[in-house]
Amino acid sequence: MIVETAPELFERLDFIENPFYENIITDLVENQYCIVDDFFYAEEVEMLRNSLKSKFEEAQFKKAAIGNKTNEVVAKSIRGDFILWLNEAEAGKAENLFFNKINSLVAYLNKTCFLGILTKEFHYALYPEGTFYQRHLDTFQNDGRRKLSMVCYLNEEDWKPENGGELVIYSEENGVEVSKAIYPMPGRVVIFESQVLEHEVKPVKTARLSITGWLKTR
């Protein structure tokens, strides 16, 4: 759970408030998820999209699996995307740009919310036409380190409902389940609590490109 800190704590810190990040924190506190449009600029999205496409054409991607490394299983009936894990230590220009922005956000979250995020893992994801990811939770029975999930969309144009592939997040209000459909607009980032909110990717009718990952505690 995201917990805000008392204002007096900041008097003892070398702290400069960032309104952009503060809006993210407010949404996470109030809703357990946030939608951030234009987290990446059009030029940055293009760089990342071109890098994803190039690596996919070079056959560097693999079929995504479910579970973690101790019980990983490829299940086409559950998810249909192809992925390529990103290694920050070996990142190219586009990926360095991505990690610099993510690291800035992580540093702010740790300083203001004391989340204790120590590691992260991200991968490129490509959903071909007709694929999907069934409803699930981003945590494992044998590994609960994932704190926040992030999806960064890299599509080439504004997404329309007929393109499919929307992310649906399920939450609860006053004891009643509610759902929120989020379309993968270019540059948009969605952040949500990994251990709390179930979600799914609806069937894709146009290839859907993104970077997906997790901010993790010890």
Write a structural description.
There is one protein chain. A hairpin with a 2-residue loop joins strand 7 and strand 8. The strands form two sheets. The protein has a seven-stranded antiparallel beta sheet with strand order 1-9-6-11-4-3-2, with helices on one face. Strands 5-10-7-8 form a four-stranded antiparallel beta sheet, with no helix packed on it. The protein is built from three helices and eleven strands. The chain is globular, with a radius of gyration of 17 Å. The model has no long low-confidence stretch (mean pLDDT 90). It has a single domain (19-216), classed as Jelly Rolls. The longest helix is centred in the middle third of the chain and has 21 residues, at 93-113. It has 218 residues and is an alpha+beta fold. Helix 2 crosses helix 3 (93-113).
CATH topology call: Jelly Rolls
Number of DSSP-assigned strands: 11
The CATH architecture name reads Sandwich
The N- and C-terminal alpha carbons lie at a distance of 15 Å
User: Roughly how many Å is the radius of gyration?
Assistant: 17 Å
Helix coverage percent: 10-25%
Q: In sequence order, what are the helices and strands, one letter per element?
A: HEHEEHEEEEEEEE
- How much beta, percentage-wise? 25-35%
Poorly predicted sequence stretches spanning 5 or more consecutive residues: none
Just give the CATH class: Mainly Beta
Strand order of the largest sheet: 1-9-6-11-4-3-2
Shape: globular
Number of domains: 1
Relevant CATH superfamily: q2cbj1_9rhob like domain
Structural class: alpha+beta
